[in-house]
Amino acid sequence: MIHPPDRPTELGPGGDNAIAHAMGVAADEWTLLILRYALQDGVRRTAQWQQVLPISSAVLASRLRRMTELGLFSPVEDEEGAAYHLTPRGAALWPVLVCIWAWEARWAEGHPLCLPRMRHLVCGHQFEPCMACRTCGGLVEPREVTGSFGPSGSWPRSAPNTTMRRRSSGSANLGPGFFPESRALIGNRWSAAMLGAAYLGAHRFSEFQRRLGAPATVIADRLRTFRSLGVLEVLGDADRTDRHHYRLTDKGRAFFPVVMSAIEWGQRWFLAPEGPAVVFRHRGSDHPFSVLLLCSACSRPLTGKEMTVD
Ligand SMILES: [Zn+2]
Ligand SMILES: [Zn+2]
């Protein structure tokens, strides 16, 4: 299926919903890195990407093909050969990229690469994105956002069956290691949904299992991964798994803008015939919630064009 670059894809009934599509894109490191250079440096050609990324011709070609199918690039032939122009759909991924970048730079331990800090061109300062509510403008914590499934929402429909990474083969496709912990968090089937359940208030093994309907071995495996990444911590009797109380850490809560930005992009560009996958509200208010990212240095709204990396 080729997705249109400038209007939303109309999904078929009953299949993967907007969340599943968004997580499939957000979990692929190469896709994000290719986008980064297209967004910030105007990179359009394979030779230019190969100058700045440690990517093989085969992997780059397969990603550009896939990103074109997804409507993120529109390819054109000119006198210098093939060029890939970023589409409105591709350019709209900047909040996902910025939130992942900031989270990895601050929280990923033993990061194999030192990510440079981002700089806001409007105020000239280094910054991190801060999540605010687009309706009222106030800064929000994860606990201040409520989410409930819409007509196309359910846990199985929100967990992608295949990610871009798994469709490819070979270790070279695993990615260069710029965003290792994000990949560990949302790169597997169920893991993004597990994280979503934690944000919506699941604390016990049985709650995760009941909400997601996933096999117990899968729940146990993802909880182990989240603990080892320091995203969830366990309170309660350490010897009694059934009494474990799982709680998001600061690091886990800090990942929330990544998930919210990705879901928002997904719901903007992938429409299920039944209606939205999830509906968010600003808790304690009378209005819906959607993400506005502010500069931590000057508090102005961020835009994809007004930032650089040091
Ligand atoms: Zn609000
Ligand atoms: Zn600023």
List keywords for this structure.
alpha+beta; 40% helix; binds zinc ion; 14 helices; two-stranded parallel ribbon; globular
- Main sheet? 3 strands, antiparallel
Q: Order of strands side by side in the largest beta sheet?
A: 5-4-13
Tell me the number of structural domains. 1
As a percent range, the share of strand residues is 15-25%
Uncertain segments of ≥5 residues (pLDDT<50)?
A: 163-173
DSSP helical segment count: 14
- End-to-end CA span: 38 Å
Q: What Rg, in angstroms, do the CA atoms define?
A: 19 Å
What share of the residues lie within helices? 40-55%
Q: Number of DSSP strands?
A: 13
Give the overall shape.
Answer: globular
pLDDT averaged over residues = 88
| SSE sequence, one letter per element | EHHHHEEHHEEEEHHHHHHEEHHEEEE
Instruction: Assign the structural class, choosing from mainly alpha, mainly beta, alpha/beta, alpha+beta, or little secondary structure.
Output: alpha+beta
Bound small molecules, which ones? zinc ion
Describe the overall structure:
The chain has helices spanning 18-26, 29-41, 46-52, 57-69, 88-91, 94-107, 155-158, 164-167, 180-186, 191-199, 205-212, 216-228, 250-254, 256-269; strands at 9-10, 73-78, 81-86, 118-120, 126-127, 129-133, 145-149, 232-235, 245-248, 270-271, 278-282, 291-295, 307-309. It starts with 8 loop residues before the first strand and ends with a strand. The longest helix is centred in the N-terminal third of the chain and has 14 residues, at 94-107. With 310 residues, it is of the alpha+beta class. Helix 1 packs across helix 14 (256-269). Strand 4 (118-120) and strand 5 form a beta hairpin. It has one domain. The strands form six sheets. A three-stranded antiparallel β-sheet has the order 5-4-13, with helices on one face. Strands 1-10 form a two-stranded parallel ribbon. Strands 2-3 form a two-stranded antiparallel ribbon. It is built from 14 helices and 13 strands. 40% of the residues lie in helices and 17% in strands. The chain binds zinc ion (2 copies). One zinc ion is lined by residues 120, 122-123, 125, 127, 295, 297-298, 300. Residues 12-112, 175-274 form the HTH hxlR-type domain. This is Transcriptional regulator. It comes from Actinokineospora bangkokensis. One of its GO terms (molecular function) is DNA binding. It holds the Pfam family HxlR.
